[in-house]
Amino acid sequence: MPAAPGGPRLLLRRLREAMAEPVSAQARLDRIVVLIAANVVAEVCSVYVLRDDNTLELFATEGLNREAVHLTRMRADEGLVGLIAKTAEPLALSDAQQHPAFSYRPETGEESFHAFLGVPLLRAGNTLGVLTVQNKTYRVYSEEEIEALQTTAMVLSEMIASGELQALAPDAGTAARRAVSVRGTVLAEGIGLGHVVLHEPRIVVKRLIAENSERETARLETAIENVRSAIDDLVERGDKLGTAESREVLETVRMFAHDKGWLRRMREAVGSGLTAEAAVERVQSDNRARMMRQSDPYLRDRLHDLDDLTNRLLRELVGQEAVGLAGSIPENAILVARSMGPAALLDYEPARLRGLVLEEGGPTSHVAIVARALGIPAVSEVENASALCDSADAIIVDAVAGEVHVRPGPEIEAAYAEMVRLRARRQEQYRALRDVPAVTRDGVRIGLNLNAGLLVDLTHLNETGAEGVGLFRTELQFMVAQRMPSAAEQQALYRAVLTASGDRPVTIRTLDIGGDKILPYMPKLEEENPALGWRAIRIGLDRPALLRVQLRALLKASDGHPLKIMFPMVATVDEFVRARAIVEREKAHLRRHGYALPADCKLGAMIEVPSLLFQIDEIAREADFLSVGSNDLMQFLFAVDRENRRVAHRFDPLSVAAIRAFRLIAERAEAAGCPVTVCGEIGGRPLDAMALIGMGFRNFSMSPAAIGPVKAMVLSLDAGAVTELIDSEMARGHDGDSLRPALAAFAKAHGVPI
User: Model pTM greater than 0.70?
Assistant: First the structure.
């Protein structure tokens, strides 16, 4: 049987009129199913909505028993309707009763129908319900009818997502508003309760139904050409997409932008009567639905590329710049984003942020470092995070367990509110320890210092009672700037840092860029293994002007005060000697021109390249102090990319191999009388710090939030006893096993809080 004259455009025109009628949501939905049935020449049209208990509920019908509306429910995997909800694919059958999944509810009166057509109600790739039509005769639905039903489904999806249908069945929420709990990786510990702020908000398509399809087609073609041109320009410049994408990703996005199938589907959607932006969103929602259900990780990863391309196209169509809401975020904001750089995070007002949720970014990424510095609970590697949330949704970030709860129920919200109160009381206990010296029970003095990279970090010196700054990362100033900071700007920052620290010592690390630390205004060097490539002190020695400008700014900023300068990524003693010679030349230059030199200038080396383990005696004699960069040291020691989730957790810094490396550093530095500090992440974890004390380390530098828990551990610890434990465990031989279980058991037995 052919479709009614007019096709999808006529149906959309009538739907637009129905949507504008001043009637109740149920009356509007009842009118819509009548219009759809008439357009497709079907005897039945029904709308099923996926509820938050994972059941499909009949919300409206034309042709079935209307008494069954809001009473008929089925499991989300039950029958043909459940099959469509599960696969997110249309299903057209000339005789539905012969399909293996066929089943029916007697109360609906649908047992006499044969032909069946159903399409999913999709939004951002998520299934919200199912729209079906049925006929008693055996018939084949045309491609035009399937297209019309899919187009209509988009309009219904927006009704569901807007909450308009919630009043029809208030006893349970629809799938669009369903509570969701997902897991990720902790970037910065803490718990945050608040409401979603999308860093790059989903473009809200307000105009769904076109008034002039020819004009919409022209708008679509213009937007496609503009986006293609912009991507071509980026590729030609060798630029990067967002904050962390490579040229290869840009090439992939360009390939998608020229994909004929993608373009054809959008043109067809416009031809069916949708606006250009509604067509783009509908095609991407269909793509998301298919790709989210793929088991192939490569295909799932391509979803991000399509999302980015779609967002670019939507922004072009609605005239919206690719910016977030940094200037207007509400109180208790929790940022949700695919990825984010440190500069973007700093655009937001820290006092209003309660948490951060990212799809991409590891614990040692720079946005993680900034989040920890600002005290913002952060969880990353949360799959599909930006599509799971809408702006202003209630959300909880549990950056202790690595969980994110979107639209949580009242019980979960109450439990976390109590957890936050308990953590606040614990923080009060830590604050009470602020002025208590960090001395173990057997009288061993432990130095606790801050890791910092921003001027705002130094406010934590007084709050935590830290003895000083054990690591000030100068690269953050370069990474958040739009251009290379001048010598005067660098000098002003370093002077402000030294002034803010007062009498407390500050160890300033020279520029550590390269690898994963890319400056936005410098061309990216393509390397097979960037972490092992041209970075840190290697750049400084090969481009001495860059290092000299920074060293001169540091020396001038000290203005007669003590100064400690540390060089990163030192792989050989010769590299340190060459860097020290540059410092001496700069000091001589300043002396000739009458500048005040530091009262005391000490130079140190970071131990993060394993080659220094075999030159430890030599570097301990040459350097004034050493600092263990445990993040990179572990990465290189175990050949494990710390940003690669497949392998990042395959080693333990308390394994036998790691402990032997750490003990070697502590013992040889002590023998040479060279002070050594641990400034990597493990020093800020109480159990790991306890083990390091047992190995002989006496100075640590960590994030502000870690000082309280580590000090509480120190005050309860007998350092000699943990040293004896490590000695005995290592003597027994563990064949590479971790000492973590034995150390945890020791802490529990001796009442050491970890």
Answer: no
